[in-house]
Write a structure and sequence with these properties.
This protein is 40% helix and 14% strand. The protein is α/β, with parallel strands linked by helices and 394 residues long. Bound molecules: pyridoxal-5'-phosphate (PLP).
């Protein structure tokens, strides 16, 4: 429980009114500008020579984006953070900062599908070799790491929710001289602070819980000043996927309620997951808290998990019978969502089949939103009844 003190201390910082603010407004302004002008030749020269730090152009530094970056860095216990136009922009810029042709990276299996596709397309074209390992098998990770430039992980992993011992994996990466990068979108810094567990860099799809209202696509990376400085100077300006001021403003608004929302997602998803686990139509539930004790460093669980129906349940009929849960990808907002595993498997047949590997034909992924446990459970129960053998709808 000693882990929780810094989290709560940092959580207080995301609601504090400590942003630069010329009008004493309770909300920091949106500095919606592409460029910033200089008062004199001398000021311009000092800025360009790096003697004076001030914004020049919003692809590099924007005050509204900086407010969000500083808050996120505080939440993750990082020295610095950088905001991006999407989670994938954060992931691609981060990885491309540290690899060159001939390098090798090690990646845990079952990661976010577009991260996998980035590795399989762009990295392969750059002659970067990628080895996929079961992140729960420490011996396999230890065997794959020697010589790797970078170790990429996610815990829990997308869809099948493999939970990892992040501290042990980060320790193995460090021992082998590999930079460790973890996608922390699922737990958010409220429930997991990977840098405190020894990871080097933490990335987020800010489109998920950090924003929390399904109205932003954005990303962020946090870590030491040295590593973030490398990303800031070597890929961010040229790949150019910088976060916009308005998105940063929405994200800062989202952060104000992050601890409360994460608690509510946790409570509702756990209650629903337990009821599903006890339902006769359900074969199994893939939720980190139902798989045994949470690993050290994961102090809570979020709203996203999967479950597998027993044979005989009509999955398309179940999906179409839902009325509170909407059918859609992404997650992390107020709304509850369902995705059928079969569609993901069909989409990823063939060369991308490693993405579908592990996704059961009868599985459904749920994001449990903030509509209320009983309403959501009634929706699921009715939809299961409509999809069960012998139902009038069959
Ligand atoms: C959505 C998601 C991403 C990608 O983020 P975008 O903001 O959509 O680019 C990365 N990792 C995980 C785990 C995600 O769920």
């Amino acid at each position: 429980m000693t882990d929780r003190a810094p989290i709560l201390a940092d959580a207080s910082r995301i609601v504090a009114h400590d942003e630069p603010n010329p009008y004493e407004a309770v909300v920091p302004p949106i500095v919606q500008t592409s460029l910033f002008t200089f008062a004199s030749y001398r000021e311009m020269e000092e800025t360009y020579l790096g003697q004076k730090a001030r914004p020049t152009y919003s692809r590099g530094l924007n005050p509204t984006v900086r407010v969000f970056e500083e808050k996120l860095a505080a939440l993750e216990g990082a020295e610095d953070a950088l905001g991006f136009a999407s989670g994938m922009a954060a992931i691609s810029s981060t990885v491309l900062t540290f690899v060159k042709p001939g390098d090798r990276i090690v990646c845990v299996r079952h990661v976010y599908p577009d991260a996998y596709r980035l590795f399989e397309t762009v990295l392969k074209r750059l002659q970067v070799e990628v080895a996929y390992v079961d992140g729960q098998d420490l011996a396999a990770v230890a065997a794959a790491l020697p010589g790797a430039m970078l170790f990429y992980m996610e815990s829990p992993t997308s869809w099948v929710m493999d939970v990892h011992d992040v501290a042990a994996l980060a320790g193995l990466a460090r021992k082998n001289g590999a930079i460790s990068v973890i996608d922390n979108s699922w737990a958010s810094p409220i429930f997991q602070q990977p840098l405190m567990l020894g990871c080097d860099l933490v990335v987020h799809s800010a489109s998920k819980y950090l924003g929390g209202h399904s109205d932003v696509v954005a990303g962020v990376v946090a870590g030491s000043s040295a590593l973030i400085g490398q990303i800031r100077s070597s890929t961010l300006p040229y790949l150019g996927g910088k976060m916009s001021p308005f998105d940063a403003w929405l994200l800062t608004r989202g952060l104000r309620t992050l601890p409360l929302r994460m608690q509510a997602h946790q409570d509702a998803a756990l209650a629903i997951a337990r009821r599903l686990a006890a339902h006769p139509a359900v074969e199994s539930v893939q939720h980190p808290a139902l798989a045994g004790a949470l690993p050290q460093g994961l102090s809570g669980t979020s709203g996203l998990f999967s479950f597998i129906f027993r044979d005989g349940i009509d999955v398309p009929a179940f999906i179409d019978a839902l009325s509170v849960f909407s059918l859609g990808v992404s997650w992390g907002g107020h709304e509850s969502l369902a995705v059928p595993g079969r569609v993901v498997r069909a989409q990823n047949a063939g060369p991308n089949s490693a993405i579908a590997f592990g996704i059961h034909d009868n599985s459904v992924r749920l994001h449990v939103g903030l509509e209320g446990i009983d309403l959501l459970w009634r929706d699921l129960e009715a939809a299961i009844a409509a999809a069960s053998p012998g139902s009038a709808a069959q």
